[in-house]
Design goal:
The protein has 194 residues and is mainly α. 74% of the residues lie in helices and 0% in strands.
Length: 194
């Protein structure tokens, strides 16, 4: 993606000469440079999460529970965890003098802070399950399932970038609005017809 966002050619120039993409890729440094550069903050945030876990320990699912139960207000749950991006951002402020805590936090970091290396594997398997699940919905004949599966495919960028709390929260609202409510009324009208 960095190749496309940092290319110096216009769209018409790329259409006329597609090799400009390859030249931009080579000039940018390829995949290995993209992952180890500072503008790819996900790598840095993973390292910050590893540092945090080294000092504070794993959350053993506490961060995950906080994400899943996002709808419970802090006034009722005083010890509700911060989103992982904010938690790691606060760690960077306290220990390294950063000035902001509004960070993304990838699925790798989310898995690691919750359950260590097993969490990274668990989150990868869980994400794979949901990708396959929504692929089945995309191929269904139900237009509501197709719409939410398409939304999930677009929202996957947000899910992968993180953090989990915000990605999950911003998926549930559209899921309810685009699938659950219309499906409820569809079933209600079918029952009334019978």
């Amino acid at each position: 993606m960095s190749t496309f966002t940092h290319i110096d050619a216009s769209f018409s120039e790329i259409i006329d000469n597609p090799y400009l993409i390859v030249e931009s890729y080579i000039r940018f440094g390829g995949i290995s440079t993209a992952y180890s550069s500072l503008h790819y903050d996900s790598y840095a945030n993973i390292m910050a999460t590893v540092d945090y876990v080294g000092k504070e320990g794993m959350s053993f699912g506490f961060q995950l529970i906080g994400a899943l139960l996002f709808f419970i207000p802090r006034s009722l749950w005083a010890s509700k965890p911060l989103s992982t991006g904010e938690l790691i951002g606060n760690h960077l402020i306290d220990d390294f003098g950063f000035t902001y805590n509004n960070l993304s936090n990838s699925m790798v970091s989310e898995g690691y802070i919750n359950f260590g290396f097993l969490g990274v594997i668990f989150f990868a398997l869980l994400l794979s399950y949901f990708v396959v699940f929504f692929l089945k919905w995309l191929r269904s004949s139900n237009c509501l399932k197709e719409a939410i599966a398409f939304y999930f495919a677009i929202h996957l960028i947000f899910i992968l970038r993180g953090d989990l709390t915000n990605a999950y929260t911003y998926f549930i609202g559209p899921f309810i609005a685009m699938y659950l409510i219309p499906d409820f009324f569809r079933r209600l009208f079918i029952k009334k017809r019978k």
